Amino acid sequence: GPSVDALADLTARVVEIESLLEHGRSLDAGTALASQVDSDGVGMHSLRSHVADLAEQVAQIRSRAHDLPSSSGDKANQGSQTLQRLAASEDATRALQQQLHQLHSDHRKLESTAACGSGHEERISFLEKASRE
Question: Which long-range contacts (CB under 8 A, 24 or more apart) does 34-37 make?
């Protein structure tokens, strides 16, 4: 029946999400993310939207989860396993989002520090010139 198809489809989607998350995790998160954060933040932006897409997909799967067969038996058992895996995917997605958020704020701090630094250098060279004249 439709509930069995829904379960199979849902399980397939969860597996898909898991592999995407696994891929995200297997990139040594910090360095890979950091290296993708180019100076203009384009890499960061695409990463953020990628993770947002993931979260969106997980949410969609979650919203369809109530179609799962609630009757007893193998299907219900399989359904609850799928839901457990889905919950794990939700956690992983959340963790990724937090990681990105942290990285983003670190990146911002670095940028502002760099901006201050270059300002100081300009001021110092200006003072040096002034003292020479």
Answer: 34/103, 37/103, 37/107
pLDDT at 113: 74
Confidence (pLDDT) at 35: 56
End-to-end CA distance of the chain: 89
- Say which DSSP state 28 is in: T
CA distance 56 to 17: 11
Average pLDDT, whole number, for the chain? 72
| pLDDT value, residue 19 | 78
**pTM of full prediction above 0.85:** no
Instruction: State how far the Cα of 65 lies from the Cα of 73, in Å rounded to an integer.
Output: 17
Integer angstrom CA distances of residue 103 from 7, 26, 36, 119: 36, 17, 11, 24
Q: Where are the domains of the chain?
A: 2-101
